[in-house]
Design brief:
By secondary structure, this protein is of the alpha/beta class. Helices cover 33% and strands 30% of the residues. The structure holds nicotinamide-adenine-dinucleotide (NAD).
C-alpha cells in the first residue's frame, strides 16, 4: 500500500487531505506545513498522521509519495526535492511557475522512474470527460471554436494573478479536449484593484487544425460563471459547471449552406434540432484524480496529466502572456 504525505495545508490542502483519508488505495500517513497552527488543526482532524514543519523532515520519513499543495512559486523547489529523494509526486496546478522549470521536473521524474502528476482537477471531472468523448467520436463534427468564461468575485490570491490562478483550469481542459498545443496565442487584461496583478484577463488561442478558443477570467464579477461553449460543424455543446443537474447540454444546431442556384447567391438555413442533457456520474473529480495518481504508482502507467501535460499548460500561458496587446511595442495603430 502506497504511503502518502501531504505538503501544504492552507485553503486547498484540506480538500486533498479529505480525499486521501477517504480513498482505500493508499495509507495517508503524514502531513507538513510551515505554519504550526495549520499543522495542528490537521493533526486534530486526522489524529493518526505524523506532522512535520519542514519538507526535509517529511521527505526523510517513511512515505512513498507526496501531494504538494503549496503556493505556485514553491512548486518547483518542493517537487524537485521530493523527486530527488525518490518519491512519486503529485503537484497542484500549475506544475511550476515557468515552462523550463516544469520541463526540468518532468526530466527528473523520467530519469528516476517516478510518477509525476499535475493536479488539473477538471480533466478528471465527468462532464469534461464526456465532452472529450463527444469530440473524439466525431459527434460534434469539426471543432470551429470554443469560448470559456470563468468569473466570480474573488478569491484574490497573493502570489499570482488571475491568469495563473483561473485560466490554468480552462487551458488544461482545452489541451485535453484538442490534444494539441496552440500555434499562436495572445492576451490582454487589467489590474483593477491591485496594481500589477491582473484581476481580469482575456486570452485567445489558435490551434494547428484551425480551431480557435477564447478564455475570459476574472476575480471581479458579480456572478459566478463557469461556462464553456463548444461549437462544432455538426453539434454544439454548452458545459455549465455551476448547473447542479444538467452540466452538459448537447444541441443539434447549426447552419446549413445550400448550393447556390445562381452565381454568388448563397442560401443559409438554420438547423434547430433537439437538445440532450446526458446523465453524468456524480463522483467528486478530486477523488477520481487522486485515485488515478495512486493507480499510476501501482501500475507504472503514465498519468493523464503527467509532467509533460503540465509543462504544455504552462507553455500555453506563457505564449498568451508574451503577446500582450497592452504592451506598446505590440499595439497596432488604429
Ligand atoms: N485544483 C484546484 O481546483 C485548486 C483549487 C485551489 C488551489 N489549487 C492549488 O493549490 C495550491 C495551494 O493553494 P492554496 O490556495 O491552498 O494556497 P494557500 O496559500 O492557502 O496554502 C498554502 C500552504 O502551503 C504552506 N507552505 C508554503 N510553503 C511551504 C513549504 N515550503 N513547505 C510546507 N508548507 C508550505 C503555507 O504555510 C500554506 O499553509 C496552489 O498551487 C493552487 O493553484 C488548486
Amino acid at each position: 500500500m502506497t504511503k502518502v504525505g501531504l505538503i501544504g495545508l492552507g485553503y486547498w490542502g484540506p480538500n486533498l487531505a479529505r480525499v486521501l483519508n477517504q480513498t482505500t488505495r493508499c495509507e495517508f500517513t503524514a502531513c507538513c506545513d510551515l505554519d504550526p497552527q495549520r499543522l495542528k488543526k490537521t493533526l486534530r482532524q486526522y489524529p493518526g498522521l505524523k506532522g512535520f514543519e519542514s519538507v526535509e523532515d517529511l521527505l526523510s520519513s517513511d512515505i512513498d509519495a507526496v501531494v504538494v499543495a503549496t503556493p505556485i512559486s514553491t512548486h518547483f523547489d518542493v517537487a524537485r526535492r521530493a523527486l530527488h529523494s525518490g518519491k512519486h509526486v503529485f503537484v497542484e496546478k500549475p506544475l511550476a511557475d515557468s515552462s523550463p522549470r516544469a520541463r526540468e521536473l518532468t526530466e527528473i521524474a523520467q530519469a528516476r522512474d517516478r510518477r509525476l502528476m499535475t493536479g488539473h482537477t477538471f480533466v478528471y471531472s465527468p462532464p469534461v470527460v464526456k465532452v472529450k468523448e463527444l469530440i473524439d467520436s466525431g459527434a460534434l463534427g469539426d471543432l470551429q471554436y470554443l469560448s470559456f468564461s470563468r468569473v466570480n468575485l474573488g478569491l484574490y490570491r497573493k502570489d499570482v494573478d488571475v491568469v495563473w490562478d483561473l485560466a490554468v483550469h480552462d487551458i488544461s481542459i482545452l489541451l485535453y479536449w484538442l490534444d494539441e498545443s496552440p500555434i499562436s496565442a495572445g492576451s490582454f487584461g487589467r489590474s483593477c484593484v491591485q496594481s500589477f496583478k491582473r484581476d481580469v484577463a482575456y486570452l485567445w488561442f489558435q490551434f494547428p487544425g484551425g480551431t480557435i478558443a477564447s478564455c475570459e477570467v476574472s476575480w471581479l464579477s458579480p456572478q459566478k460563471m463557469r461556462r464553456t461553449c463548444v461549437v462544432g460543424s455538426k453539434r454544439m455543446v454548452v458545459y455549465d459547471d455551476t448547473d447542479p443537474s444538467e452540466k452538459i447540454k448537447i444541441y443539434d444546431r447549426g447552419v446549413i449552406v445550400h448550393q447556390p442556384e445562381n452565381f454568388g447567391e448563397f442560401q443559409l438555413t438554420y438547423r434547430t434540432g433537439d437538445m440532450v442533457a446526458p446523465n453524468l456520474a456524480n463522483t467528486e473529480p478530486l477523488l477520481i484524480e487522486i485515485e488515478h495518481f495512486l493507480d499510476c504508482i501501482a501500475t507504472g502507467e503514465t498519468p493523464r496529466t503527467d509532467g509533460r501535460f503540465g509543462a504544455k499548460v504552462v507553455s500555453a500561458i506563457e505564449m498568451a502572456e508574451k503577446f500582450d496587446w497592452q504592451r506598446e511595442d505590440q499595439l497596432v495603430a488604429a
